[in-house]
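Sequence of L-rhamnose isomerase (Dictyobacter halimunensis).
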Amino acid sequence: MGISAYTFFEQQQADRGIDLEQVKQQIKALKIETPSWGYGDSGTRFKVFQQVGVPRNPFEKLEDAAQVHRVTGACPSVALHIPWDKVENYDQLRSHAESLGLTLGAINPNLFQGDAYIFGSLCNSNEDIRLQAVNHVLECVDIARATGSSLISLWLADGTNYPGQDNIRERKHRLLSSLQKIYQAMDPHMRLLIEYKFFEPAFYHTDLGDWGMAYNMALKLGEQAQVLVDTGHHAQGTNVEQIVAYLLDEQKLGGFHFNSRKYADDDLIVGSTNPYELFLIFYQILDASRANDAGVRQTAANIAYMIDQSHCIEPKIPAMIRSILNVQTQFAKALLIDFSAVKRAQEQQDVLAAENAVREAFEFDVTPLLYAVREEIGVPVDPMRAYLQSDYGQRILARGKGGASW
Ligand code: PSV
Ligand code: MN
Ligand code: MN
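Predicted 3D structure, token representation.
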């Protein structure tokens, strides 16, 4: 891509009244956290395929994550999942991250794999098991202190498979009381991000089945609790961007788990099947960042952007790079929306003009823009090519098969 493509693009956007310098600043500021588990082996309930070269421990997962940050400059932090990433000494893990130019990000408790949790964790009718689950999350709060993390992102597998299996309202009460114990243990700068999902592994009812249930819990807990939107956790046809807008307006949107889905919680590369949805999510965020209400603007500015994907059949590091590039692309396109044109059309109730003002931004090729941004921050203009041309992928083959797996 030569200078001329960018010059043409610059002129095109100047003619539309878009301040490209500001757009570039915003692209540079977008940071996306990658998940440690995205570098390990994962699969479906049918099979986990083992790949050669997969990290054998949390230290090696960080080394792989550092490659993604090296070529994109956009992924300086890594989320941990406990106990998948449990280590003896978190100071050592933190120093290792720092030596790689990374920080440790959200701590994700695991309330779904312990044998005790067959009938649930924080909602279990057995008080001892509920306490065990609460204690695990409290341990994660301690880990967050040691790793310098400020986010606890909590997903529950709790639910039932059959009508009558347990009392839905009592489970709701148990959940709130468990969450209150966790919330009270957090330091003032920490945030509890509550993730919801409509089904799986429970198939009849799920205790945090949708954004409304997560929102209700976050509201009852207090300011430090917010909702986490995992883009793959909705029923077919759900308007995810409306949920995003609603939660932003209530100042309760805390973060995202980005991934793509076709049928259910498929955990595919974000933006691979539904790029327009991702673009429209960013449209809502950028719209909120221009809101009159300072609280809404602040909420939009503090969103934790995280990837949550399972790379079952694809090589993991390039899959993560692809994900980051897809997010950057849709974000860059959303930044090209002419918000005054949208507003004008809305005021005139001109449906077609309003829809056009949003869609036309999606239709621009932002490659020259992203190349220019990367050149300015000193990362390869084509991060995927740079990674594939490096020998890192070859070198890690020496790790062999049978690395970390969920
Ligand atoms: C559950 O489906 C989920 O989205 C939660 O965020 C978990 O922590 C993660 O996946 C595990 O892969
Ligand atoms: Mn998730
Ligand atoms: Mn999921």
